[in-house]
Design goal:
The protein has 16 helices and 9 strands. Helix 4 packs parallel to helix 5, helix 5 packs parallel to helix 6 and helix 10 runs antiparallel to helix 11. It is α/β, with parallel strands linked by helices. The termini are far apart.
């Protein structure tokens, strides 16, 4: 078994330059060469490890890509983008190079390929890296049909199957898939398969497969058939269906991982409200080995919902909960000021003062929080305290030549003597 660095090189070349140009490498992974007992030759795997892998002792899911020479870089890009925003968990990506010809014959050799996948590829990855039992398999075209066949014959080997433009499916494979559903009425897997518009020879059998699933799939099977349309998903035909399939498949498989966001209070209540949010985060923590506490961005979503929807009970409930954490220390001045203003809008100057106090500690030279404190005392009818904070804000604004200076002076003047 041999390993080497997998590089994506880039060069900075300018027309007119004022200094020395530089070139370097963007490292997106490494290659692992394994000895395949199945094929009696060396085979190449492209590997991308998740952020923080070397510093942790955690075991990770693995996404296996057939035709890794084509789809590895794209999968890495999706992974890095989606994990950075908390939509997907971290996982290992393995691109299996399969530039074998003839292509149809290679992927039609099901028994050999299954042997290769389990005993050469998966076994090597499990030995070389910290992996858990959550394995995903992706394939396109003939490799997509093999992905469906793998689910039929060895559903135990993977937890999710993503098949882009699977061809050929054929009557036997469709019958075998029907038998799989009948034999295992509690099949708990993820399946996403796709076609684009006008894929001659692909769509008919894919629709038949979708019909079988509509009629016989158990509730435990998390499945979807996606038709990739130019207007909604990144697919311009047969050769590009993997783009949407990988994205949609990962979102489907990890549907319960993203931090919950709600479009409205109506959506929030329809989902189950406060009890749903609490249950969601507990379930998420147990399944993915995460802390039970709501993360910073999740807290932000919930407080923002109450404020944007002008639903004070939701805003107050979550703000009271989150003030016990480090939430406000990680919120910028703009949003924190809006929270305080929302308290004032709903006649709660004490809530506003809590926020303005923290902001004055964090931003001692900024006059806005100090002036806001004056507004809170003014609402309470405590003119003397309001005047004191307004005067302090004016002094800070004068030092900075702040554009709000005139407004601050007017507020002080309006208080009278």
């Amino acid at each position: 078994m041999k390993a080497s660095i997998f590089l994506l090189s880039f060069f900075l070349i300018g027309g007119v330059v004022f200094g020395q140009t530089k070139k370097g490498d963007i490292v997106i992974g490494s290659t692992l060469t394994i000895d395949s007992n199945t094929f009696g030759q060396e085979r190449v795997l492209n590997i991308s490890l998740p952020k923080g892998y070397e510093e942790s002792d955690k075991a990770y899911p693995v996404l296996y890509l057939l035709d890794g020479q084509s789809w590895f870089q794209y999968a890495v890009s999706i992974h890095k983008l989606m994990t950075s925003y908390g939509y997907l968990p971290e996982f290992i990506i393995v691109g299996i190079e399969t530039e074998d010809a003839p292509r149809f014959g290679f992927f039609a050799n099901t028994d050999n390929l299954l042997e290769f996948l389990e005993h050469d590829v998966v076994s090597s990855i499990d030995k070389a890296y910290r992996t858990n039992s959550d394995r995903m398999l992706f394939g396109w075209q003939f490799a997509g049909a093999f992905t469906i066949e793998t689910m039929i014959q060895r559903a135990d080997l993977f937890s999710a199957f993503f098949a882009a433009s699977p061809i050929p499916l054929g009557q036997k494979r469709l019958d075998d898939f029907s038998a799989l559903l009948q034999e295992d009425p509690s099949l708990e897997k993820t399946l996403l398969f796709s076609t684009s518009l006008n894929e001659n020879g692909v769509e008919a059998d894919a629709r038949l497969l979708a019909g079988i699933l509509n009629s016989n799939a158990p509730n435990t099977l998390n499945w979807k058939y996606e038709v990739m349309k130019n207007e909604t998903l990144p697919a311009f035909g047969h050769r590009t269906t993997p783009l949407g399939t990988l994205y949609q498949g990962l979102r489907k498989h990890y549907h319960d991982y993203p931090l919950p966001e709600f479009n409205s209070i109506k959506d929030f209540n329809k989902s189950g409200g406060y009890d749903y949010v609490e249950s969601y985060y507990k379930t998420r923590a147990n399944k993915y080995g995460l802390p039970v506490d709501i993360p910073q961005e999740g807290m932000f979503f919930l407080v923002r919902l109450g404020m944007i929807e002008d639903h004070y009970p939701t805003f107050e409930k979550y703000m009271n909960d989150f003030l016990k954490t480090d939430f406000l220390n990680n919120i910028n001045l703009g949003w924190s000021s809006q929270y305080a203003a929302f308290y004032l809008k709903h006649n709660n100057p004490n809530g506003a003062k809590v926020i303005f106090t923290k902001l004055m500690e964090r931003f001692p030279d900024n006059p806005a929080p100090t002036h806001g404190m004056g507004d809170a005392y003014r609402m309470e009818g405590k003119v003397k305290e309001a005047r004191r904070y307004y005067s302090m804000a004016i002094a800070l604004a004068e030092k900075l030549n702040d554009a709000r200076l005139a407004a601050y002076k007017k507020d002080l003047k309006d208080l009278g003597q």
